[in-house]
Amino acid sequence: MNSERDSETTFDEDSQPNDEVMPYSDDETEDELDSRQPAVEPEQNRINREAEEKRESFKKDCSWQVKANDRHFHEQPQFKRTVFLCFKKSKYAGNAIKTYKYNPITFLPLNLFEQFKRAANFYFLVLLILQTVPQITTLSWYTTLVPLLLVLGITAVKDLVDDIACHRMDSEVNNRTCDVIRDGRFKNTKWKDIKVGDVIRLKKNTFVPADILLLSSSEPNSLCYIETAELDGETNLKFKMALEVTDRYLQEESAMADFSGLIECEEPNNRLDKFAGTLFWRNMNYPLDADKILLRGCKIRNTDFCHGVVIFAGADTKIMKNSGKTRFKRTQIDSLMNYMVYTIFVFLILLSAGLAIGHTYWEQQIGNSSWYLYDGEDYSPPYRGFLNFWGYIIVLNAMVPISLYVSVEVIRLGQSYFIDWDLQMYYAEKDTAAKARTTKLNEQLGQIHYIFSDKTGTLTQNVMTFKKCCINGQRYGKSMRLLLHPIIKQVDFSWNMYADGKLSFYDHYLIEQIKSGKDPEIRQFFFLLAICHTVMVDVSDGQLNYQAASPDEGALVTAARNFGYVFLSRTQNTITISEMGIERTYDVLAILDFNSDRKRMSVIVRESEGNIRLYCKGADTVIYQRLHPGNLKREATEEALDIFANETLRTLCLCYKDISHDEFEAWNKKFIVASATITNRDEALDKVYEEIEKNLILLGATAIEDKLQDGVPETISKLSKAGIKIWVLTGDKKETAENIGFSCELLTDETTICYGEDISALLQTRLENQRNRAGSSTHSSLRMNEPFFQSGRDRALIITGSWLNEILLEKKKKKKKLKLKFPKTAEEKQKQIENRRRAEANKEQQQKNFVDLACECKAVICCRVTPKQKAMVVELVKKYKKAITLAIGDGANDVNMIKTAHVGVGISGQEGMQAVMSSDYAFGQFRYLQRLLLVHGRWSYIRMCKFLRFFFYKNFAFTLAHIWYSFFNGFSAQTAYEDWFITLYNVMYTSLPVLLVGLLDQDVSDRLSLRFPGLYVLGQKDLLFNYRKFFVSLIHGIVTSLIIFFIPYGAYLKTMGRDGEAPSDYQSFAVTTASSLIFVVNFQIGLDTSYWTFINAFSVFGSIALYFGITFDFHSAGIHVLFPSAFQFTGTAPNALRQPYLWLTMILSVAICLLPAVALRFLSMTVWPSESDRIQKNRKKYMAEEEQWKRRQSTFRRGVSGRRSAYAFSHQRGYADLIASGRSIRKKRAPLDAVLRHSVTEGRDTHGTS
């Protein structure tokens, strides 16, 4: 790209993004970014500058002060902030977590306030007030009060149940306990009572209740091992270490009680990986960093107990700061429904105004001259018209259906229970059922366009398994096809007393070779796995427990253990291995640790004969560069690596090298010097490591499976066929994320992969072209929207967090140094504003271009991204694509993304419950997502759309009859029906059938929904409920109202009963019209029902029977005697409904209403059948096929790929520094053989450890 770049959007060519590192933290300050820039300056200047910066930085940033064991300190006036007017409270949050909305006092007023914020509820409250005014009302007040109370009551009960669940969850967390110093002693205290400055004691396998500064622990040098699954989804252990001074003096309870240190640190923020502060104690100050802080949500592991002082509590903790803002979520149908209700409002007002004008005209022409209509009030015609306007607002109120909202809530609640009760989404292994944590988003599940998924713990099990290996050019481990054969048996490891019983291996020949001991290369291979690592070992209940810095390393050491080469223990300078039952101890001379640049690690050991040997393992790309030219098995191993890569296994090369004593002594001197280097120590060590790691002898390669959860490839395939695009957003390495993309079939060998560096120039060119073309051509807008890629090939985008910031122009600019400046002129200010506006416009256009480009790709994988970046990607797609999004994750680092998406799903697994607590839906495995969307989501969408269409139709059909009646009653706002019919129409007579359709209807079965994912497209395109469908319902309602009014009107016009009576009075007409309406509406919903059950049939015919039962009861003489003013249609129904011609009238009305609907339904199914109609027609054939078809087992589709998957070491250095320094080794420990002796059943040659 040779085009000139605008200075405002030019990327820094000298600092290309690093794919291996996470981008800057979410709250990172410009000063921190500034401090990263290397500077060449004299040493004394540097010292002076650092001292000055430190003083300035503490004045500005370290305004958070914590005094240990002194609660009164934090209540001082300078630590209080104004809450409201003159009311102040401490800026230090309490440790109690609150997610509920109500308490017993505030529930009623707050809930009513929230409900009356809804336009429909407030409208009906106003109507109720209007109905108390006798001059304008023609309806009794109870016709509005009964439905309103029902709606408010049901909604209040539902809100109460939801809030009680929140109370219980909060109570469970807040009432956890730990030991806190009180009155000089540790006392058991609830989490909610913990305050900033408290000194607490935590025990093994307990959660950390707040962000605390580690003071001491039971481990050597006050090390503390923690699991951060709640924060980042990773289950491998990490370690923290206390200050040396606190480790020395703060071990006893009395010392803890007397501790009075003052901590000055940064204000609460969301940076999980950073902390800056100082401890002032005993007239000394000690710097603090993130390695000394235990964050809330971590779990104490392998540490009997530890002590700490609380720095941040409750809402100030980093995990809570990372949870993002709680967003109010509503479905697309909700928004559309509200707009339709507003449309009905406008229509109602215009209609009432027109009818009021009609009444004014009628009064002037007829009413004033008709003496028999005089009502004793001398109102002018305009005033009577004004009163009638409000009268019609009341009469036509059913056009704005109050019961709509409560019916929708009932349907959503029922759908939520169906999700909870679905046994096919129950994960038996963890006893985890699916859970709909909200009832407001069910139909949105049927409209998803984009899924944003975490990787670790969401797509994968976060479990690594040793599958295959290549030793001396010979491959071991059965192929995936052979594993499906029933004759193949699993290797029996019972001969090995140390085997953990969890490894599944099927190549018996390798076991025979190991037992025979004939091949020294095999012995060297597994010996290397057992000795070249930084794994820590712990013994509990006679069992060895390995704690590794990465899951891969743990899997390799565990594999060596099962094959007879067992890592038993280590000291600072030795390591003890059991080799086929024989214990040997080796001197470890050096550990050359892993980092992301080296992609390898080595150990140098002295063997029992005195020989010095280097063992190394690493990625094939770096190992092959360092091999001795004379390696004989190089090609055979490379061929094995290709085969392993085709099966999407993660590969690793193993090699060794013999070192002479003289060579080691010379190298060791350089190693000692580099280890003592203060500045650029890591770079110096890497250079020394490079000198010794060359001319290596290749031993072989390992192949590890990063186990996907069951059914992930099939789920992704079905969701893709449903038109849903899947993006993976992970904090993992690029190679690891890419490897998983191939494993789960998100990427295939036919996919063209684009990386950040590829699209950066493409986007830059597009942005320049857009700026150049803007306004220069009438067709510029068309050309600016042209696709980025030529069609015909599947493309995928893999981009790191650093490139994401670079491309989206999110990189923070360095802070300018303070300079003496003259006041700016108006022209300069205007120019600055213009530059800022142009930069913002460029940024917005660049972001839109990126989203357009990414959405052209079949799949997108964003790796090494922060929680904030995950949320940003979701927000960009929501903003520029107007698409419905779903985010799914399992850790606290996914919470922000889950809250940002339209629908959030939490995986409730081994990585904690933080994501689940912030999610809308939760279940145990990723594979259940296909059932959630393709079955429950699609059904919910179809049911809700059918319900809404019919609900609007039945209300229009009911209400518009009043308008036709107005032409015959002088527009006087008299009702066409009895008051009690109006009251009960939506509540009892027509509510149940339509509710059951909204709850139970289905066009095709769940199996067919999963088999034909293309059915899902209806929801994505909003085909079943939109303004067009709304106006179709309106027209249908108008036609029905015309028929049920004018056919009885014509029948009543000149009629005589069989007995000489003439039932053509108003009350008989109202009963006939109402009865016709009940028949039409209930039969119409029957015609629209796709899935008939006994309950549906009972609801349709039961509603008709209920109508006649109540009508005959309300028209009886007995109830009129009791309540003469409320029940005035005495004897009407019995008299009218015994006339045969009235039944014939009703039959005619029903037939004319329903026959066109039946004909249209027949034509649509035969001439223009939908996809679901075709599937429903052939459902028996499909079900028979399913019975005969054996579903293939869930295995990965292995391609013929030449790609290699990099071995995923941990993202940080391992435990090498701890091991080499001896800080992790207990000073007094019984020999391991003494600990394990009781579990040994046969004699062993023991070479004891010291």
UniProtKB/TrEMBL annotation:
Cofactor requirement: Mg(2+)
E.C. number(s) listed in UniProt: 7.6.2.1
P-type ATPase A domain residues: 174-236
Molecular function terms, GO-annotated: ATP binding; ATP hydrolysis activity; flippase activity; magnesium ion binding; phospholipid transporter activity
Alphabetized UniProt keyword annotations: ATP-binding, Cell membrane, Cell projection, Coiled coil, Endoplasmic reticulum, Golgi apparatus, Magnesium, Membrane, Metal-binding, Nucleotide-binding, Translocase, Transmembrane, Transmembrane helix
Top-level lineage group: Eukaryota
Pfam family of the protein (one): E1-E2_ATPase
PANTHER family (UniProt xref): PHOSPHOLIPID-TRANSPORTING ATPASE IC (PTHR24092:SF48), PROBABLE PHOSPHOLIPID-TRANSPORTING ATPASE (PTHR24092)
Protein name: Phospholipid-transporting ATPase
Organism: Apteryx owenii
Source organism phylogeny: Eukaryota, Metazoa, Chordata, Craniata, Vertebrata
